Amino acid sequence: MSKLKAFIIPVTPFRQNCSLVYDEASKTGAIIDPGGDVPAIMDAIRESGVKIEKILLTHGHIDHAGGAAALREKLGVPIEGPNPEDLFLLETLAETGAQYGMADARPVSPDRWLREGDSVNIGGLEFSVLEAPGHTPGSVVFFNDANRFALVGDVLFQGSIGRTDFPRGDHAALIRSIKEKLYPLGDDVVCLPGHGQPCRIGEERRTNPFLNL
User: Fold this and answer.
1) For 4-211, which CATH superfamily applies?
2) Which long-range contacts (CB under 8 A, 24 or more apart) does 7-10 make?
3) What is the secondary structure of the chain as a DSSP string?
4) What is the average pLDDT score of the chain?
5) How confident is the model at residue 2 (pLDDT cuts 50, 70, 90)?
6) CA 95/CA 102 separation, integer angstroms
7) Residue 1: predicted pLDDT
8) How many Å apart are CA 51 and CA 166, to the nearest integer?
């Protein structure tokens, strides 16, 4: 089995968990959710020695996608994700960036939109794509069954869940996404969220106050 490795590159004033995920054997991988601070991401890539094949986006918010266009230009790799329902967010990244003091943010169009049932490949590691709306309408989760690992964006956090008070957020839809898409993956699955520390699905299912109201 190919062994998956991942590390976090905190970016933007929101300290978003941009991550570098790669196959240990081949040292090829992907950058997930480059929200900004592209020079810092490039430094981390160089230090890692990993060959980046693509950029993945879990959703279209500024702190996850604001640096995607610039990073694509520097690396010459495609962007995959999120679901097309987040197009309205990706088209207005420059305006949103101006509101939050992130002047380098640019609008971006993925090379490949993703939908339920699709899969993406990271260095030979296959990730299933799950649609998980609620935080945004086009949020997706990437799940690698072999390593029991999921990239969940802002769907689920350690002890919390994604906000739903942004445009087109939907609290009820988010809870359904967690319970109908994440829970069935298994209690042992480790989730790397968009903010904070990694968590396990089982622990969140048992103790997360937002899921046990």
Assistant:
1) Ribonuclease Z/Hydroxyacylglutathione hydrolase-like (3.60.15.10)
2) 7/44, 7/48, 8/192, 9/37, 9/40, 9/41, 9/44
3) -PPEEEEEEEETTTTEEEEEEEETTTTEEEEE---S-HHHHHHHHHHHTPEEEEEE-S---HHHHTTHHHHHHHHT--EE---GGGHHHHHTHHHHHHHTT-TT------SB---TT-EEEETTEEEEEEE--SSSTT-EEEEETTTTEEEEETSEETTEE----STT--HHHHHHHIIIIIGGG-TT-EEEESSS--EEHHHHHHH-GGG--
4) 97
5) confident
6) 9
7) 61
8) 35
Q: Where are the domains of the chain?
A: 4-211
d(CA 124, CA 53): 11
Give residue 98's pLDDT: 94
